[in-house]
Amino acid sequence: MLLLTNLPCRLLPVLVLVLVLTMVYENMRSKSKSYVRSSSTTRPIQPLSLHMLQLFIHCFLSFYFLFLTVSEAVCNPQDQETLLWFSGNVSSPVSPLKWNPSVDCCSWEGITCDDSLNSHITNISLPSRGLFGNLTSTILSLHSLTHLDLSRNRLLGPLPPGFFSSLDQLRVLNLSYNSFSGELPLEQSFGNNGSIMFFPIETIDLSNNLLQGKILSSSKFLQGVLNLTSFNVSNNSFIGPLPSFLCKSSPQLSDLDFSYNDFSGFISQGLGRCLRLSILRAGFNRLSGDIPSDIYILSKLEQLFLPSNHLSGKISDDITRLKKLTSLELYFNLLEGDIPRGIGNLSSLRSLQLLTNYLTGPVPLSLANCTNLVSLNLRVNQLGGSLTELDFSQFKSLSVIDIGNNSFTGDLPEKGCKKLSTLLVALNFYNETFPSNKDLISPNGFPKLKIFGIGGCGLKGEIPAWLINIKSLEVLDLSVNQLVGPIPGWLGTLPNLFYLELSDNQLSGQLSNDIFQLKALMSQKSHDETDRNSLELPVYVSPSSVTTYKQQYNHMSSLPPAIYISRNNLTGSIPVEVGKLKAIQILDLSFNSLSGVIPDELPNLTRLERLDLSNNNLTGRIPWSLRLLHFMSYFSVAYNNLEGPVPTGGQFDTFLKAYFEGNALLCGGILLNPCMSPTQPTATVTTQDEDELSRTIFLGLGFGYFFGLASFIVGSLEAQVNQNHQIYTELD
């Protein structure tokens, strides 16, 4: 009985079963003997074999313990205590971890155990749980841990010392998108103190944190990661040389991402050891010197991303050996020389981004062999030559062309390119004549073109009539050319156009009412619901031009709905239809010869942020109702012929004096000169002034009535007194 009390409860059924089977066996055996004695003529029943009984019990126990191991295993108590300590150091205001100590921790959220009798924890997976707090050193006691995913939380602070060397069974580590800080706890190995320790880890993702310091080759951990295939430390603040040495200790690497850090200096040789490398990203650092030659032997490389560094020298012809390359992004560097003539050998290329370098010469004709090309960006280089010879008809998948800020001549692509969505050719084709044939582009010529920019070219002629066939157009930039004639009214019929840039031309005539009928600018709903996906290249927008320099937009939704028609020769008044553009944010009509008054309909543009009417011949007063435009951060009517008071209140209290200068008859407000005109009372007619006038009139009438009544009473009293005096006199 004492033995039974010491047995685990889950083993009692086994013992009971063994006892029952033993009793059954003995019972059957006795019955068989009795039967044999009672009948000598009948063949005796064979007793149950002891061997068969033992075999049955053995099979039962095997299945029982197998079931017991799988379904009733309890996690290791020390591991459970470690998890409870971890949960005590983190919090989740949205959905706290519901780890109940009375429940087997192997069944807790995000926890997986192995199938051993000790049931050690092997997997912690808690991505995007809103966890906030620190990762303490207690987690280092989980020596069986193979997978740790705490990505996309709000964990912070340094990683505990010995983190990598203690968790020596890890295969997958993902701590990305947190706020971990400090240096990596990479224990350094000084001198030759013995053999290198092996670590089985395959994936390391520490991207998008606040980590810093150097990644050195003397790290004991990084010397032993033989199976490492992916290493991502992008979007941190690491410094020092690029750790090319990883390809020596980890020749299985296929994905390396060092981008968006502060790595500096030359890229040392060594990357060529990673013969399985398919992705190499080291953009947005401070790397300098030539592109290392051993990169060109990486025959499996698919993505080479080295933009925004200080790389110099030429792009070697050996780059054409990278037959599997799909993306080549070397923009914002100091590269010079020609584009390799054999660039067409990269037939798998989908994205070629070489903008903002010092490249010279023509675009190689072999580029037409890159028939899978989707995005081509060569802007801001010193390229030249005729584009007519390049066969654009081969680019069946081409969606984006940006060759702006070069010196190209010839014709625009007219064939193929049915998927083209962006065509930017600014600052090319200098002083040529804009082709005006309406049939130049058929209605199906560019069925998906959304952005067309050809500003800064000095092109002559009129606004081409073939633009009416591009119904999908959303952004149009024809600025800084020599275009003449009126602004055609059919521009107002383009259903999706929300950004129109016609500044710095020689356009004349009156503003057509039709220009202010653009459907995409008439309704904020139509602008918001239009499909404005991420652009496949940055669109550079200065304060008044899509295709010039500095301001960059990566999303169509971030482009402000706008009309720029400044610096032309337009005359006539501003049509009242301007009040229909309720979605517009920027309206620039400055530096023209517009006359008449400022339309009272402008306050209908409730989303307006910038309104520039300066340097025209406008007359009349500034409507006080413009104070209702609460988003307007810029308003200029300088150098017109306006008169009367400058409105006060609202955004007008933030505008500079310079925005109103050049109007001799303006007064008050920011100008600080009093309005002395005799017609001033009828000029202001504000609600505040009306209240003050009404109050003055009311008080005047009140005082008049009071004094009149008082005079009447006093007069009546005096008359009564006089009458009484006369009566008393007569009585005397």
TrEMBL record:
Pfam families in UniProt:
LRR_1, LRR_8, LRRNT_2
Keyword Metal-binding included in the entry's annotation: no
Q: How does this chain sit within the bilayer?
A: Single-pass type I membrane protein
Q: Could you tell me where this protein is found in the cell? A: Cell membrane
Q: Which segments cross the bilayer? A: 12-28, 48-67, 697-717
Q: Which UniProt keywords apply?
A: Cell membrane, Glycoprotein, Leucine-rich repeat, Membrane, Repeat, Signal, Transmembrane, Transmembrane helix
**Record's InterPro entries?**
Leu-rich_rpt, Leu-rich_rpt_typical-subtyp, LRR_dom_sf, LRR_N_plant-typ
Q: Leucine-rich repeat-containing N-terminal plant-type domain: which residues?
A: 77-114
Q: Where is the signal peptide?
A: none
UniProt lists the family membership as follows: Belongs to the RLP family.
Write the protein's name.
Leucine-rich repeat-containing N-terminal plant-type domain-containing protein
Q: Which organism is it from?
A: Brassica oleracea var. oleracea
